[in-house]
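quick one before i forget lol
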Amino acid sequence: MDVCFTPIGIIRSPYPEPAGMPIQAVAAQGVAGQIELNPIYQTGLQDIEGFSHLILLYHLHLVHESSLLVTPFLDNQPHGIFATRSPKRPNPIGLSIVRLIRVEGATLHIEDVDIVDGTPLLDLKPYVSTFDSREGAATGWFEQNAGRVYSVRADQRFL
C-alpha cells in the first residue's frame, strides 16, 4: 500500500540546515518563524487564533535513509528508533509544538521553532492540553537526559 501526502504549506525558520539548531521546540523558546499555508487552505484557519499553541506535522525532507537503531542527541547509547525522537525514521515525519503569535491571511507567525527552513508542512492541529498532556507519563531513558535538551544542538548525524 502506498501512502502519498501533499504538503499544505512551507515552514520558514532561521535555520538553513539542521546543524546547530535546537533538537526540540522546548529548547527553541522565542525563535520566530512562519507557516506559509497554501492559500487554498486559508478557510481552514477559521477560529485558529483562539489557540495559543499548534501541533505541526511535517516531512523531514532532508533525511534520506532510515535506521532501526540510532544513537540520539541526548544519549551515547543506541536505542530503537521508535524509542527516540530521531528524524531517521522509516517514515520521516516530524512533530513540533509551537506558539501561535498571529495570523495574517494564509501566513501564521509562530515561535519556539526547531524546524529547518523550507520544511514541507503536512498538517497542523490545535494543541489542547486537556487532550495532549498525560499526568504521570513515563519517559523511559529520556528521564535521565531530558534536562540536557536546552544545551544540546543538532549535528549532521541523521542526514
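fyi The two ends are 26 Å apart (CA to CA).
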